[in-house]
Fold this protein.
Amino acid sequence: MKIDRIKDVYAVHSYFYDSIFGRLYAPGRLVAIGLMDIKPGQEVLEVGVGTGVSLPHYPRHARVVGIDISSEMLAKAKERNVNLGLSNVEIYEMDAGRMEFPDRRFDKVIAAHVISVVPEPLKVMKEMVRVCKDEGEVYILNYVGASSRVVAWFEEKFQPIRQALGLGRNVDFGALIADAGLVIEHIEGVNILGMCRLIKCRKKGR
Ligand SMILES: C[S@@+](CC[C@H](N)C(=O)[O-])C[C@H]1O[C@@H](n2cnc3c(N)ncnc32)[C@H](O)[C@@H]1O
C-alpha cells in the first residue's frame, strides 16, 4: 500500500481505532513497556504512535517521542497528551522510512503494530536501527500470522482485503530483523492466545 493510501486508511481508522485495536492490543503494549525497563533520563522513540494509546503507560521519568504519518491519528494522540498532561511526550508527523532524527539518538526504539502495514518494512527497520544508540534496544510488537494452518490459509486468501483495510500483511520478521542488522534477544507471545509477538533486539556485533 502506498503512503497516501495508508494516510487515507488511517484517517478513517482514527474514528474507531481506540475502541477496537486500542483495547485488543492493550495487554501487549503494557508487557512491552515493562520489558523496556526504561531508566530515568532515557529517551524512547515510538514509531507509528497512532492515537497514542501507549503514551500514558510510559514512565514519566523518560522522554518519549512519538511519530506517525497520519495527521488524523496524531490529532487524537495530541488531544490525549493535553488531557493527561503528558509533559514528557513529544509528537511529530513524520515518515518512519525517512526520519528527521540524527543517528544514534534514542536509547529504545519501538514499533507496535506498524511494520506489517508499512510499504517498505526493511527501510523502516533500518531507520529504527540508525536512530537507536549502539548500546540501545529495538522492539517490535506485531501480529506475526496464524499458527494454525487452516487460519493461515484463510489469511493468505484474504490478504488483499486485509491490506486494503490497513490491517497489515504477513511479514517474515526473522529475515527482516537480520537484514536490518539486528539480533533477537528475547521473544514472547502477547495479547489474546499469544497471537502477537513482542521481540526485543540489539544491534548486531555489540
Ligand atoms: C495499526 S496502527 C498502530 C498504532 C499504535 N502503534 C498501536 O500500538 O496501536 C499503525 C500506525 O502506523 C502508522 N504508519 C503507517 N505507515 C507509517 C509510516 N511510513 N511512518 C509513520 N507512521 C506510519 C499509521 O498511520 C498508524 O497510525
